[in-house]
Amino acid sequence: MGKVSVIIPSRNEMFLDKTVNDILNKASGEIEIIVILDGDSEYSIPSESKNVRVIKSEVIGMRRSTGLGASLATGDYFMKCDAHCMFSEGFDEILKADLEDNWVAVPRRYSLDPDEWVTRTWRPVVDYHYFIWPWRNKNDISLRTLKWKDKAELKKDVLIDDDMTSQGSCWFMTKDHFWKRIEGLSDERYGDFYQEFHQIGNMTWLGGGRVIVNKKCWYAHLHKGRQYGKGFILSKRSAELSGKFTLDYWINNRWPNRKYDFEWLIDKFWPVPTWPINWRELLEKAR
User: Fold this and answer.
1) Is 277 helix (H, G, I), strand (E, B) or coil?
2) What mean pLDDT comes out for the span 124-136?
3) How far apart are CA 24 and CA 162, in angstroms?
4) Is 6 helix (H, G, I), strand (E, B) or coil?
5) In angstroms, rounded to a whole number, what is the distance separating the alpha carbons of residues 193 and 139?
6) Nearest CA to 209 among 249, 255, 265, 286?
7) DSSP state of 15
8) Residue 78: which residues within 8 A CB-CB, separation 6 or more?
9) Of residues 41 and 227, more confidently modeled
C-alpha cells in the first residue's frame, strides 16, 4: 500500500529514542523514520539503520525542521509526530486504509506517561477540536483551538469522522497533498513554531479536501510542561506575530487557492462552541 515516511522534528528531546523505537515496533507496513535534530542534544540519539535517518541541523525551528524532513522523505505518505509519542499496533496501515489523496488524518489522542511508557487512562481521550470565536477574549484576539468534548461524547461510536482542526502533534497525509495542496511548511509568515495545523487543516478544508479523526488507531502524546521542559524555543514575539498573521489570513480569506471561504467551514460544523448566533454580522464588522 506504499511506504510511510515518519518525520520527527526534535530539539533536545529526552524521549526521542523511545518514540523512534515505539514506531519501529508498532508499524506493520514499510516505513522510514527521518529525525531532524534541531541543534545539539544532551540526550541519547537514535541509531541510524535502513529504516532510520538522523539529520543534524543548525537551529532552524520546528516548521523548517518538518519541511526539511519532508524534502528528504521518499515515502508515498507523510506522517509527522512530536518526539514524545507512543502509538497503537499497526497504526500506519490503519491510517492508510481510510485515506483519500486530499485528506489529512489524525489518530485519536491519549495522554502519555513517558516514564512508564503507557497511556494515562485517567485523562480523557481527545478526538475533536474547534476554533474558538476569535474575539472571545479582548486581550487575546486570535484564532485558537480547543478540545471539543461535547462532540466527542455525541459521536463516540463514529470511527471515521470530520474534525474542524487539530492540535498538530501528529498528522498523516499523502506526499502529494503535502507538496501540492499544503504547499509545504514555510516559517516565512507563520514563524518558526506556531500555527502548524491552522495551515494544514484550513488549506485542506478550504481547498476542497477533508480532515478526519481516525478512531481505529491512536497515539499518546506528552504535554511536556515544566516537569519535562520545552524543546523548541518558544518566542513570545514570534507567537504574537504568527497569531496576528493567521487570524488575518484565514478570517479575511486571503489564501488565493481556496475553493471555499472561511465562513463555509463554520457553517459546516455549526453550531460551534463560543461562536455567537450573529457571528456573520460581527465578523463583517471586525473586518
Assistant:
1) coil
2) 96
3) 29
4) strand
5) 22
6) 265
7) T
8) 4, 5, 7, 70, 172, 173, 174, 175, 178
9) 41
CA distance linking residue 95 with residue 232, whole number of Å: 28
DSSP category for residue 133: P
Decide if 10 contacts 43 (C-beta within 8 A).
Answer: no
Q: Which CATH number fits domain 4-286: 3.40.30.10, 3.10.350.10, 3.30.9.10, 3.90.550.10?
A: 3.90.550.10
Cα(25)–Cα(89) distance, integer angstroms: 8
pLDDT at 255 over 90: yes
Q: Of the candidates 73, 63, 58, which has an alpha carbon nearest to the alpha carbon of residue 7? A: 73
Count CB neighbours of 107 within 10 A. Answer: 26
Q: For the chain, give every domain's residue range.
A: 4-286
* pLDDT one-digit tens code per residue, 168-205: 999 999 999 999 999 888 777 787 778 899 999 999 99
- Decide: helix, strand or coil at residue 78: strand
In this predicted structure, what is the pLDDT of residue 231? 76
Residue 238: enclosing H or E segment and its boundaries?
A: helix 236-251
What does the buried/exposed string (b/e) look like for 38-53 if buried means 16 or more CB atoms within 10 Å of the residue's CB? Answer: bbebeeeebeeeeebb
pTM: 0.95
Neighbours of 248 (CB within 10 A): 13
pLDDT of the residue at 66 = 96
Q: What is the pLDDT of residue 262?
A: 97
